[in-house]
Request: fold
Amino acid sequence: MSDKIAGPEIERLISLLGRMPGLGRRSARKAALALLKRRDDLLMPLADAMRDAAEKLTECVQCGNIDTISPCTLCADPRRDQTMIVVVEEVGDLWALERAGAVRGLYHVLGGHLSPLDGIGPDRLNIAKLVKRAHQPEVTEILLALNVTVEGQSTAHYLTDALEASGVMLSRLAQGVPVGGELDYLDEGTLLAAFKSRSKV
Reply:
């Protein structure tokens, strides 16, 4: 019995949706069907939005966030607290903290964590730019908001050593973030409690 249910265009849509995190083949079929049923008010606007985002997508020259402008919307906001830099592993972590409304400072996206077994050393991460930003006169605190995993903790230790000469206060998220937890999967209340209870490194 064939696994194909439609023509090549629809099969391609299902296949591509199936590559999304959390979507298997069955969920991808449901999502594709929902899009196809609402071609005019959902499928076409979504296609246009995705095309626009793909064409304009860029990485922020300051923090590493992804946006359609650089510096990104957050770095360009004059209301942000210029004295604090919050370091995260991935853009998803930045978005999670923003959803919680916990951070009014600036961000710095590392682009991952140290993982020698996977060949990811300091040179593969956005660390050199962070060290440079730490020496800016207005910066007084760097908050290490890294995932509470073995790799996240190893990265935090490395950054603590790398940033020591900058003289800025280093802090990290405290209670509320479980060991083995990833920021993108935590609720806003947990993130807010962890931010408020940050401790000096």
